[in-house]
Amino acid sequence: MTLWVLALGLPLAVALLLMVATLVSGPRAGALRDTVCRAAWLATLPAATLTLTGGDEVVRLDWLLLGVSAHLDEVARPLLALTVVLYAVALAFVPRSGARRGPVLSGFLLVCFAASVGVVAAADVVTFYLAFTVMSFTGYALVLHDRTAGARRAARIYMVMTVLGESAVLAAMALVTADGGLVLADAPAAVAASERRDLIVALLLVGFGVKAGTAPLHVWLPLAHSAAPTPASAVLSGVMVKAGLVGWLRFLPLGQDASPGWGTTFVLLALLGGFLAVVAGLLQDNPKVILAYSTISQMGFLAVLVGVALAEPGLAHACVLAAVVYAVHHGVTKASLFLGVQVWSSERVPRWTTTTVLAVAGLSLAGAPFTSGYVAKYGAKEAVGDATFPAAGGAALADVLPWFGLGSTLLLARCAVVLWRRERKGEHSAPVRDGVWAASAVVAVVPVAWLAQRLDPPQAVPGWLSPGTLWAQSWPVLLGVALALAAARLARRRELDDSPLAHPRGDVVPPGDVVAVEERAALAVGRALRRAAARLGSVTGRVRTALAATPSPLPALSAVQARLGLWEASGAVLLFLAAAGLLLALTGGSSP
Amino acid sequence: MTRLELLLALGCAVLVVGLVAHLLARDLVRRVVALNVASAGVMIVLLVLATRGTEPDPVAQALVLTGIVIMAAITGLALALVRRVEAPEDEEAP
Amino acid sequence: MSALLLPALVLGPLAAGAVAAVVPRERGRVRAAVGLTTAALTALACAVVVGGVATAPGHEVRVALAGWEPPLGIVLRADAASAALLVLTTLVGVAVSVTVAVRDDAGGGPAFWPLWLGLWAALHGVYVTQDLFNAYVLLELVTVGAVSLVALGKGRSAGPALRYLFVAVVGSLLFLLAIALVYAEAGTLDMSAAAGRVAPGPLLTAALALTLVGMGAKMALFPLHSWLPVAHPAAPAAVSAVLSALVVKAALVVLWRFWVALAPAAGGAAHVLAVASGVAGSAAVLWGGLMALRQRRLKRIVAYSTVTQVGYLALVLPLMAPGGEAARAAWSGGLLLVVAHGLAKAAMFLAAGVLTAAYGSDHLEDLRGAMRHRPWVVAALGVAGVSLAGLPPTLGFAAKWQLLAAGVESGQWWWVAALLAGGLLTVGYTAVVLRAVSAPADAGEQAPEPPPAAVPTVQAAVPLALAVAAVVLSVLAGGLAGLVADTAPRGLA
Amino acid sequence: MNPDAQVHESVLPVVMLLTSLVPGLVIFFLREDQVRLRTTLNMAGAVAKVALVAVLVPLVVAGQVQRAAFPWLPGVELVLTADTFSLFFAALSSLLWLVTTVYAIGYLEGAPHRSRFFGFFSLCVTATVGIALAGNLLTFLFFYEMLTLVTYPLVAHRGTRAALDGARTYLAYTLGGGVLVLLGVVWLTVLVGPVEFTAGGAAAVAELAAERPGTATAIGLVLLAGLGVKAAIFPLHRWLPVAMVAPAPVSALLHAVAVVKAGVYGIVRVVHDVFGLRVFADLGLLHVLAVAAGVTIVYGSLRALTQDDLKKRLAYSTVSQLSYVTLGAALLSPVATAGALTHIFHQGIMKITLFFCAGLFAEVLGLSKVSQLAGVARRMPLTAIAFTVAAFGMIGLPPLAGFVSKWPLALGGLDAGEPWVLAVLLTSTLLNAAYFLPVIHTLWVRPPEEGARWVTEPHRVRSIEAPASLLVPALITAALTLACGVFAGWDYSPWQIARIIAEGSYP
Prior knowledge:
The structure holds 4 protein chains of 4 kinds. By secondary structure, chain B is mainly alpha-helical.
C-alpha cells in the first residue's frame, strides 16, 4: 500500500518542489532547481519497484477523491513497465539538453508520469478518469512548453480536441458507471449488457480515438509532436498515445457478445489512418513529424487488433495480449527513435554509433527478424488468426498487416534521408544517458521476447530460425528498402530537382493535413456560439427596453389627482358617497 | 306619512341643503354659514326624536344643546381662520 | 387602582393644557416644562392602565363616571384594543413632546403646548369611551385641537387648516346623524347596550353607511383623501407627526368600534358596506403608493404614505366580516398595524422635520448629501420605511402576516393582492427617498451639497428611537397580538 | 434532518446568530477612524462563529439536533434548529465569512463609510446563518427578507449612479421574490399550520397535496418562483449580473455564498423537507423545476461567453452553476441529491476564489476586462494560480472540488431516468471550458501588450504581488477547492456530509 502512495506521491512531490523553486526567484533557488531537475528521473524508481514486486490484489485508498483503487493485472503490469522506462529515460534527457526552462519541463513530465501510472493501473472508473484528465491537461503544458507561435497553435488545437475528447470520455464514463461498471473488471460486461451499448461504444471510439490518433481525430498529433521538446514528444508518442488504447481495452465489450458492426468500423478507420498517414508522412521534411505520422500508422495497426477483438469474441483475449506486447514494443522503439533525433542533432556522440542504434531501432519498428518488432508483429498476426475483413471483399486481415510493415519502412527511410542531411552541432555530452539510450534501443528485443514468452498460451512466440516466419516477416522490409532506393535514384534526376514531390519541404501537405479544415470548422462553431449568445443578449435587452418603455400611468394619475383635489370636486364626491349609502339603506336595507 | 316622519324628512332636507350649499359655495364665509344650516338640520332631527314619547326625552334635548355649543365653537374657529386666509385662491390643492 | 386612572388619563392632560394656557406666552420654557411633566405622568398612568388591562380577568377595565350606569351615565372601558392605542399614543406623545421641548419652532411656537395637551386628552377619551355621543364630542375636540395646531404652521397653513376643518366637521355631522338614527332605534347611546337592541333595517344600514362615509372623510379614506396631502405637510414637523400617527387613528377607532358593535346585527347590508370599504381601501393603497412615487417633496411623500396605510386599515372591515378565526386574525392584525404605522409614520415625519430644518426645504433635490451629514436621521427614515412596508424584523411584518392570514383564511384574494402590492409600493417610495438622500458621487459636479444648519442631537435621535421601537416592539408582537386576539369582539356575522 | 435524531432544546443556535449580530450592531456606532476596534470585533465574531460550527458538527452528525424556539404570534413561532443540513450551510457561510472579512478589511483600506459597510456586512451574515438555522418556513421567510434589506446598502455601497441603479434593480427583483415567498408561506401556514422542516417532507403537507392537489401545486409554484429569484433561475436572474457594481468582497460573499445560496438552499428545503420529493414529483412540479434549471444552466453558460467584463462573466457563470444545485435537487435519486448538496459547498468556495482573484486584478493592476489580462500571470503568478485552480474546478476537472459534485449529478441524472440531464451537464461543461480556458490562456500564455500600464511600472513594487490580506484569502479558498476535491473521502468532508443529508430525504 505504501509502495503505491510512494509511486504516485514522490513524482508529484518533486514536481511541486520544482514549481515552488521556479516561482521563488534568486540564485539559491536556481541551484536547487538544477540539481533537482538532474535527479528527477530517480522519482520513477518507486514505480519501477512496484512493477516488479507489486502483487496483483486490488489496492484501495478510500480517502482520496471518491475512493481510489488500483490493480496490476496482465494488461497493466507490462504497460506500467513501459511507462517507467520511458519516463525515466525522457527525464534523464531533459537536463543539459538545451531545452529552455528545463526544471518546468521536468515538473510537468513528473506530473504526467504520475497520471500515466494512474491511467494504466486504475481499477475503477473515477481513478481512470482522474488520471486520464490530468494527463491530457499536463500534455497541453508539455506541447506549449517552448511558447513559440507554432507551439501556441499546436497547443490550442490540442486543447480543443482534448476538451472534445474529454467530454465524450466523461459521458461514456457516466453511462458505464450508471450501468454498474464502476469497477473496471466488470465494465466490459456492464457495457455489453446496457441498452445504450451503441452510444457508449461510439463515445469510447471518439473519446479515446482523439488520444489514440484514429483517422479523422489524429490532426493534433503531428503538430504536437513537432512543437513539444523532444523528451516530451518521446513520452507523448511512447506512453500518452497508449492511454487511448488502454481506455479501449478496459471499457470496450471485448470478449463479450460479438459486435461485428463496430469491429469493422474500427478496422476500417485503422486501415484508413494507417495508410494515409504513410502517404502524408512521406511528404514531410521534419523528422519528428515523420515519426509522428509513423505513430499514427502504428496506432492504426493496434486499432485493427482492437477491431478484431470486438468482432470475434473468441480471438479477443489473444488480440488484447498481442496489442499489449505490440504497444510495449512500439513504445520503446518509437521513444528511442525520437530521442535518437535529439542525440543525432545535439549530442556529442560519434556518428557511426548513433547511425547503428537508429538503424536497429528503425528495423525493429519495421519488424525485421531478430528485433522486438519481429516478435510483436508475429504475435499480432497469429492473434488475428483467420479473421476476415468483410467490407474489403473478405480479404484475411492476416495478410493485410504486413503492408503496415512496408509503410513504416518507407517512412523510416524517408526519416533517415532527412536526418542524414541535417547537420550535427554536438555541444552537449552526457555519456551515461546516451549509453542507456543506445542500450535500450538495441536490447529492446529481449524484454519484449520475455514478455511474449510469459503470455505464451494465447500469445504466439515466433521460432527464431524457422525459414517460413523469417521470410514472412522480412519481405515487407526488403521490398520497402528496394522501393526507397529506387525513389532516391529517381529523385536525383535533374528535371525532378524542384518538383515538390521529389524533394518535399512539407508544404504540399502541411503537418496535420486535414487540420486546416477542422480548424476552420471549430472557429466557425465558436463564432456561431458567440453570435447566438450575443443575439440572445440583444433579444432579452429588447424585451426589457420594450417593457420599460410602456407608458407609466403616473402622469395621468397625478392629473386626475389635481382635478380631484379641488374643493368642489372632493365635496361632490363626498355628497355622492353619502347619497349612495342612503340609497343602499333604503333599497337593500331589508335584505338579510 | 305621520307628523313624525314628515318632520324627520324636513330635518334631513335642511341638512342636505346646508351640505350642498356648503360644498358649492366659493366664498368662505358663505361656507361657514351653510355649515351652520346643515348643523341645524341635524339638530331638528334630534329634536323630533325627542318628541316621540309622551313627555319630551331629556337625553335627546341634552344632545341638541351640546351639538349647538360645539357648532358655535367650530364656527368661531372657522371665522378666525377665514380672516387669516388672505386670498381665497391659496387654499386650492397645488 | 387602574379603574381610577381611566378618567385621570382623559382629564389629566386637559387640566395640564389649561395650566399651560394660563402660563404667559413669553415664558415658553415653563410651558415646555408643564408639557414634559404631563407627558411623563401620562406615560406612567398609561403603563398602569395597560398593566391593569393585561392582568384583568376579561382583559378590560371598566368604570362608570360618577357611578351613573348607562343609559344615563357615561362608561369608560379600556380593553385590549385601547391598551394598544394607549401604548402607541404614549410613545408618540412623549417623542413629540421631547422634540418640541428641545426645539420649539418644531411645534410652531408657544401656543403648541395647550392645544397639544388638549388634543392628547381628547385622544385618550376617544380610545376609552363606550358612549356614542361622547365619542362625537371627543372627536370634535380632537378636530378643533388638530386644526388649530395645523394653523400654527409657518407660511400659508391657514388655508389647509380651514379645509381640514370643513371636511372634518362635515364628517362629524354625518356621524351625528348616524348617532341620532341609532338612538332613535335603540333608545340608548352606549355602544354595547345598543348592539342588542338594533334590528336589521333601513335605519341601521343608513347609520352604518353614514358613519362609514363620515369617518372615511375624517380619516382621509381614498376618494375623500385630497385634504390630507395638503394639510399634513403644511403643519409644523411635530404636528404632522401627531396628525398622521394619532389623529387619523381616532376616527378609525370610532369607526371600528361602531362597526364591531352594530354591523353583526345589520346582516347582508353590512357585508356590502364592508366590501365597499375594502374596495376603497385597496384603491387607496394603490393610489397613495403611485402618487407617493410621483412626489418630489419629502413631506408630501410621507403624507401620501399615510393615505396608503389608511387604505390598509380600511381593509380590516371586510377581512373581519366572515367572522371566526379570520376575524380574530384581522382584528389583531389591524391593531398591530395601527401601532406599527403610528410609530413608523411619526418617525418618518419627525425625521423629515429634522431634514427640513437642517436643509431649509424638503425638496428631494435639496436634501442630497443628507446621508453623509445626517446618517442617523436617514437610518430612521429607512427603518421606518421598512416597517411601513411590513418587512421582517419589524412590527409591521407581524401585522401584515396577521392580515394576510385573515385574507387567505377567508379566501378574499383581492385584499391579499392589495396588501402585497402595497408593500412593494411602500418599498418603492422609500427607495426613492433613500436614493435622493444619498447623493450619487458622480453627480458631484452639480451644486455642491449645502452645509446643513445645526440641529440639536436629541431632535435627530428621537426619530431613530421611534423607528427602533417599531423593530423592538415586534418581539412583543406575540404578547400584544395574543392579548388582542382573544378579546376580539364576539358575534361577528 | 435525519429522522432518528434526538432533539435537544439548547441556546447554541441563538448564540451562533449573536456572534455576528452583536458585532454588527456595535460596529454601526463606531467612528470611521476606530479601525483596530472594528477589525478585532469583526474577526472575533467570525472566528467565534467558525469555532461554534466546529463544535456543533460532530455533535449533529452523531444525531443530536439543537433546537431553540420563540413564540411570535398566536399559533406561530420562530424556530432555530441546527440539524445536519443547516449546519452544512452554516459552516459554508461562517467559513467564507471569516475569509471574506480578512479580504474586505484589506480591500477597503482607507475607503469611506467602512463602519456602515462592516455593520451591514455582519448583519448580512446573521441573516444567512439565520436562513441556514431556520427550523420552519416562517423563520426561513423572516431571515430571507432580512437578507434582502441588509444586502441592498452593500450593493449600493459605492454610491455612484451605476451602483444605485444596480441596487435598485437588485431590490426590485429580490423583494418581488420575497413577496411571493411571503404569500406562499402564509397560504401554507393558514391551510396546514406552522410547517417544520422534517426529512422526507412534512406529513401535513403530504395530506394537503393528497386532498387538494390544485392548491398544493399553486403553493409550490409560488414558493418556487419566489425562491427562484434569489436562486437566479432563468427569467428571474437579471439582477445578478447587474449587482456586479458592488465592491469585490460584497460580490464575492453575496454572489458566491450569502444571497444566491439562500435561494437555492430554500428550494432544496421546500422540495425536500416541506413537500418531500415523492409528493413534489406527484404534483408534477419536480419536472418543471428540473427543466427550468436545465435551461438556466445552458443559458448562463452561453451568456458568459460574450462577456468581456470579468465580473460579469463570473456572474453569468454563477447563474449557470447555481442551477446545477436546483437540477440535482429536482432529480429523484439520492446520488443526485448528494451531488446537489455538495455543489452548494464546492461552488461557494470555487466561485469566491474567482471573485477574490477578480478583485485582486482590479485592485492591484486596475484591470477588470478579460482582454486586458494578457500576460498578467507574469506579474501576479500566485493570483493566476488561484484563478486557474478555481477555473479548472468550475469546469469540473477531477482532482478538484467541481468534479466531486458534477460527477454524482451526472450519475444521478441517469439513475433518475433523465438522460437529458447528462446532455445538459456536458454542454455546460463544454461551454464552461469555452469561457474559462481562454481567460487562463490569456493569463498564462499571451505576452502582455506593450502599452499595458502595469508593464511599464517598476516590476517588484512589494515583496509579494499583492497585499497579504487580499492574497491569502484567495490562496486559502483555492487550497480548499483542491482539498475538498482530493480529500472528498474524509469523514467530515462536504461530500460525505452531503451523502448523510441526502439519505435523510429518501425515507
